[in-house]
Write a structure and sequence with these properties.
This protein is of the alpha+beta class. Helix content is about 35%, strand content about 25%. The protein has 10 helices and 15 strands. The chain has a 7-stranded mixed sheet with strand order 1-2-4-3-5-15-6, sandwiched between helices. A 4-stranded antiparallel sheet has the order 10-12-8-13, covered by helices on one side. α1 packs antiparallel against α10 and α4 crosses α10. The protein binds nickel (II) ion.
Length: about 400
């Protein structure tokens, strides 16, 4: 409970930092001022820190006793969303907004650094603080890993606020939690011509339409209904005017799944159907496929520690189960390499207007939940170092 008491002591500090970050949002991989401010705040309390992953920060607190190393991760980037709130801390940068709550993550992790800095004598090992840039573009975690942030780290915790969950509850269950976010682009090449003479052409509009329809059978006919899978064609662009047969069509889409062993076969199915469809109509098709974000799988052992730490902070009845989400999270880059757990802290409160969805112009958070977030980060670090067995 010491962590919660200390979190209360630092509550005003955390709220102040959050409002400062919120007022001054910076887009992915350009968090220059945010990085500078985080480093200044860490320097103030004597916490060793270095720039990492471009515009991120990696900070370290060594306990007085030897032991393992635990990572605590907060992402810090904002979005190109127009803020519709008129609060005094509303974004001062036109068209850019912390509409996903990453301002709160950075602030709560700074709060946790203060707490753990005071509790150095109770830390059995080392705590690494990941202030990660560029989550929204799926580049930040990889950039930090490339800079060596994960070296020697035995387990890692991520926290994301959630307007869907009631303020003050925590979800930290094990197993699959968030989906992949793959991206694909199909370029179909036919033969253009006059709309009145289809016999002289290969109509890319028709091939594109058939491809969209045939791709629907991947989910419905090739994969188990018990394992969620989404194949979405979000855009189909072809043609210039009503009486010209289009020579090309471009389809772009996204693929979401929770099982990492789906990565290869889904891509292969898209490629096979796309080629065979194009061939059936005498056209050709090319696929560009990008594995943007891996599915997020929470290690069961680490999740058990996270649930216990959460219960310590918010009480048993506020540690909740929650449905999976097909949203993607680049935390999966860490948890693909070391045991990790991506968890959610509720900040939804209809009375305070903090129940708008993430990425909405009116998104906001219940700041009263910050004490739980900071305390939970810190409590998890202590508990992990105390009880985790490799
Ligand atoms: Ni987010």
């Amino acid at each position: 409970m010491k962590t919660l008491e200390l979190a209360k002591k630092y509550h005003d500090f955390v709220v102040g930092m959050r409002r400062e970050f919120h007022r001054n949002p910076e887009v992915s991989m350009k968090e220059f001022n945010t990085q500078k401010r985080i480093r200044e705040e860490l320097d103030k309390i004597g916490v060793e820190n270095v720039p990492c992953g471009g515009t991120g920060v990696l900070a370290t607190i060594k306990g007085t006793k030897p032991g393992l190393t635990v990572g605590l991760r907060a992402d810090i980037d904002a979005l190109t969303v127009v803020e519709e709130n008129d609060k005094e801390y509303a974004s001062a940068i036109p068209g850019v907004m912390h509409a996903c709550g990453h301002d709160t993550h950075g602030a709560m992790l700074l709060g946790a650094a203060r707490i753990l800095n005071e509790l150095r004598d109770e830390i059995k090992g080392t705590v690494k603080f990941f202030f990660q840039p560029g989550e929204e573009v799926g580049l930040g975690a990889l950039a930090m890993i490339k800079d060596g942030a994960l070296e020697g780290v035995d387990g890692i915790l991520g926290v994301h606020v959630s307007s869907e969950l009631p303020s003050g509850v925590i979800n930290a269950e094990g197993g699959p939690r968030m989906a992949s976010a793959d991206m694909f682009k199909i370029t179909i090449t036919g033969k253009g011509g006059h709309g009145a003479h289809p016999e002289e052409t290969i109509d890319a509009v028709v091939v594109g339409a058939a491809t969209v329809m045939n791709l629907q059978t991947i989910v419905s006919r090739e994969f188990s209904p018990l394992d969620p899978l989404v194949v979405t064609v979000g855009s189909l662009n072809s043609g210039t005017r009503m009486n010209v047969i289009a020579p090309t069509a471009i389809l772009e889409g996204t693929v979401r799944y929770f099982r990492s062993d789906y990565a290869k076969p889904v891509k292969e199915a898209i490629e096979r159907i796309m080629r065979a469809t194009a061939e059936a109509y005498r056209a050709t098709a090319e696929l560009e496929y990008t594995y943007l974000i891996k599915p997020t799988f929470n290690d069961e052992k680490v999740a058990a520690i996270a649930e216990k730490a959460a219960a310590e902070v918010v009480g048993d009845k506020n540690v909740v189960k929650a449905p999976l989400t097909t949203g993607g999270e680049d935390f999966s880059e860490y948890s693909a390499l070391i045991p990790g757990v991506m968890t959610r802290l509720g900040t939804g409160n209809a009375a305070k207007g903090t129940d708008y969805p993430h990425h909405h112009g009116k998104f906001d958070v219940d700041e009263d939940a910050f004490v739980y977030g900071s305390a939970y980060y810190a409590q998890f670090a202590l508990d992990f170092l105390d009880s985790y067995k490799k």
